[in-house]
Design brief:
Elements (H helix, E strand, L loop, with lengths): L10 E9 L4 E8 L5 E7 L6 E3 L5 E3 L2 H11 L7 H17 L4 E3 H15 L1 H11 L5 H14 L1
Length: 151
């Protein structure tokens, strides 16, 4: 770390502690040349996720949109908000771990459906009907038959 006083490139860490509720680390350093002390903060670099929509447009990933879709699908169903939060966290973590900066909305929809199927089948069918844009009752029945076959 470069000293802000003399620009020497070497320093030693004198003290290190969490800051901003664990989101960063505060370090007190001492320059090995001029012996003055200074503070640095270390944070995790988070690159934004970009969602590529069906029409080709791009927008930044918004966990609130995923949560909104889950809440609508689970309306009047015995699924807790904590469970939904867990699903959103799991999906966001999976997307961040893949290290791809662009993800298709289709991939996010599939991840949501995969998790909803395990939590509540009615919510799964509701979400699938909107996400897959069921055109008629036959498409709806195909999805229900697929669900029954998987059981």
């Amino acid at each position: 770390m470069k000293c802000p006083y003399c620009a020497y490139l070497e320093s030693k860490v004198v003290d290190s502690r969490p800051a901003e509720e664990g989101a960063s680390i505060r370090r007190r350093r001492e320059c090995l040349s001029c012996h003055k002390r200074f503070t640095t903060y270390e944070t995790v670099e988070s690159l934004p996720l970009v969602v590529v929509k069906r029409d080709g447009s791009r927008q930044s990933f918004d966990r609130n949109k995923v949560m909104g879709g889950l809440i609508r699908a689970c309306e009047k169903r015995p699924v807790s908000v904590g469970t939904l939060e867990g699903i959103v966290n799991e999906i966001e973590q999976k997307l961040q771990n893949e290290m791809e900066r662009e993800v298709s909305s289709a991939q996010i929809g599939e991840l949501v459906m995969e998790r909803l199927k395990k939590v509540d089948e009615v919510a799964y069918v509701r979400f699938a009907s909107v996400y897959r844009q069921f055109k008629d009752i036959n498409t709806f029945m195909q999805e229900l038959n697929k669900l029954l076959k998987d059981k």
